[in-house]
Specification:
7 helices
Length: 239
């Protein structure tokens, strides 16, 4: 591939946004490098039966939950359970919240924990180092016509989508699951658009669209974080 003619600062900026967005999604879906199991979550490989839906197909050991990323929020998917009048998001759990959590059937709590256990091991487009460093490194390679790192990220994100698609979520996590799949679709479109832009005769024009996709992905990932926290609080998995 020939060296593209594009403003280096523009390229670095776009790739930086794309890198930060993908890292945000990776944080939401992949925390397999952690250790330990939060209270109330299974640590073995046995998947419990969900009283509402079929069991997950990819059991894993549940890692320690990582802190939330300080990302801008747009909207979050609201999930409500029959008979649950507490809002999906809100202030810190009160004594009444804990009472409602204790009323959740153990089978439902374990099924939700197992779902997040499996999702936590999905790894979309892994990057080493911080987003800024990865962005400069990739931008420099792309400017020279080297798309090998980008191609690798596309393959890894495709594999992550296949892994996620193999999971059967409990009914209470259906909306979170759909948003997770949709986020991976967005990530793939962003990465493929970036590659197409670098292979075009006028990459600068297409890079603007890539940046917009990346920003939208970052916001969607932030909404997923908020939805996951709401589910963990509802089922008593945050202690």
């Amino acid at each position: 591939m020939e060296k593209v003619s594009v403003n280096k600062g523009l390229l670095i900026g776009v790739v930086a946004v794309a890198a930060a967005s993908l890292l945000a999604l990776a944080f939401v879906l992949g925390r397999a490098s952690g250790s330990g199991s939060p209270s109330g979550q299974p640590s073995g490989r046995e998947l419990p039966a969900d009283p509402v839906a079929s069991p997950l197909t990819r059991p894993q050991a549940l890692p320690q939950q990582a802190p939330l990323l300080p990302l801008p929020m747009t909207s979050a998917v609201s999930i409500t359970e029959p008979g649950d009048t507490r809002p999906a998001q809100g202030p810190a759990p009160s004594a009444g919240d804990h009472e409602r959590e204790s009323a959740v059937p153990d089978s439902a709590r374990v099924a939700v924990a197992a779902y997040f256990d499996a999702v936590d091991h999905i790894q979309p487009g892994k990057m080493s180092g911080d987003a800024e460093g990865a962005a400069h490194e990739m931008a420099a390679a792309l400017a020279k016509g080297d798309t090998s790192d980008l191609d690798r990220m596309i393959r890894e994100t495709e594999a992550a989508k296949e892994s996620l698609a193999a999971i059967t979520p409990p009914a209470s996590c259906a909306a979170h699951y759909r948003e997770s799949l949709g986020s991976l679709d967005d990530a793939l479109e962003m990465l493929r658009s970036l590659k197409a832009a670098m292979e075009s005769q006028n990459p600068a024009t297409q890079l603007t669209s890539v940046a917009a996709r990346a920003t939208a992905l970052r916001s969607r990932s932030a909404a997923l974080q908020k939805e996951e926290l709401a589910l963990r609080q509802r089922y008593g998995l945050t202690h």
